Amino acid sequence: MQNLTINPQRLWDSLMDTAKIGGTEKGGICRLTLTDLDRQVRDWFRSQCEALGCTVAVDQVGNMFATRPGKRSDLSPIAIGSHLDTQPTGGKFDGVLGVLGGLEVMRTMHDLGYETNAPLMLVNWTNEEGSRFAPAMLGSGVYAGVFDRAFADSREDRQGVKFGDAIESIGYRGDAVPGSMKFGAMFELHIEQGPILEAERKMVGVVTGVQGMRWYEVELTGREAHTGSTPMNLRTNALLGTARIIERVDQIALEHSPSAVGTVGLVEVKPNSRNVIPGHVFFTVDFRHPDDAVLEVMEGKLMSAIPAIANEIGLEFSVKKVWDSPAVRFDPECISAVRKGTEKAGFLSRDMVSGAGHDAAYIARIAPTTMIFVPCEGGLSHNEAESTTLEECAAGAQVLLNAVLEYDQR
Ligand code: HGY
Ligand code: MN
Ligand code: MN
Ligand code: MN
């Protein structure tokens, strides 16, 4: 097999260049899905792929597919990719490394005039983060048939803007029917977003699966009243109820430690005035665990805690499950290609299950899929200080290239 070597500096330069699109003062990126900033990076991505001779297709929920022909057009493409949207206080590498690492693989092949047997397909999945439009992994979820296009179009951000209107406004409502851009396997490169690889001084995570994830939306309604003249026993304080449920979410996760995690990350208080007793609170709950049966128990505890706490205070309540992504195991043949690609590159590795959600979790439902992790500093992610090194990014892209070649020639 020809020894193809990626260009680390070119990859790093592209990471730093695109980080300027939505770059923040603290060195992170705020590039929410389907905003004009997302359009800018999508336009850049399209032009880079077209410069390599790829054809770029866009589907009806904005997923982008850049196809590089192979020797045999009868073979199903091998997909590589991730996402270009970020958290509001995201880092430079979450998602972006997977897309630009894939671009570097294509650039390397282009430089050397190397032709794979199967076509190569570089994918940018829409709305992986789920920060603006819940649930997460919406684009790959529609592609995999987990959600339909109408569901995606109906999703609203917290300002009441619909996904369907946002995608039209940036001109990325493509023609391709979701799921029609077929491929035979997918490899997703991503930073680990956790502390294990760095702590164990391993360069590569051979990812065997993704843990289960569930999201809920809770609304508590009490009564707005004066903070000065309302006695404590006459209050129905929605934020007090929220505080007690936040505490209970933490306890439920700790009751199922060490693997369970539980978080209340988004809280909207009304009227949010310092001398008005909060009458309404909207908040979200994020539960995760590698075992769906445990997630079921955690969910049961949450569903009994909310009414109990609301009744204690006299609050009205509503709770909706808005996302349920079961635990996923990746494809052994794809995993083996990553293992061989890692050995070929000479890196130490360890097997691991992903704590974070990824598009690969949905794609694994319809095609052989796996992931490659590289370390990030302190395991920190979803934070503007997210950091990794040129060497770690290059290692990930090299293993991605090697794994694709292994799979292409199996
Ligand atoms: O929520 C997640 O795990 C992913 O980063 N969207
Ligand atoms: Mn990501
Ligand atoms: Mn993320
Ligand atoms: Mn991902």
UniProtKB/TrEMBL annotation:
Keyword Metal-binding among UniProt keywords: yes
Organism of provenance: Microvirga vignae
Cofactor: record remark: Binds 2 Zn(2+) ions per subunit.
Cofactor(s) this protein requires: Zn(2+)
CDD domains: M20_bAS
GO MF annotation terms: hydrolase activity, acting on carbon-nitrogen (but not peptide) bonds, in linear amidines; metal ion binding
Residues binding Zn(2+) 2, per UniProt: 94, 129, 382
Keyword field: Hydrolase, Metal-binding, Zinc
Origin: domain of life: Bacteria
Name of protein: Allantoate amidohydrolase
Residues given in the record as Zn(2+) 1 binding sites: 83, 94, 190
Family named by the database record: Belongs to the peptidase M20 family.
NCBIfam families in the cross-refs: hydantase, PRK09290.1-3, PRK09290.1-5, PRK12891.1
InterPro entries assigned to the protein according to its UniProt record, in alphabetical order: Amidase_Cbmase, Bact_exopeptidase_dim_dom, Peptidase_M20, Peptidase_M20_dimer
Ranges for domain Peptidase M20 dimerisation: 209-305
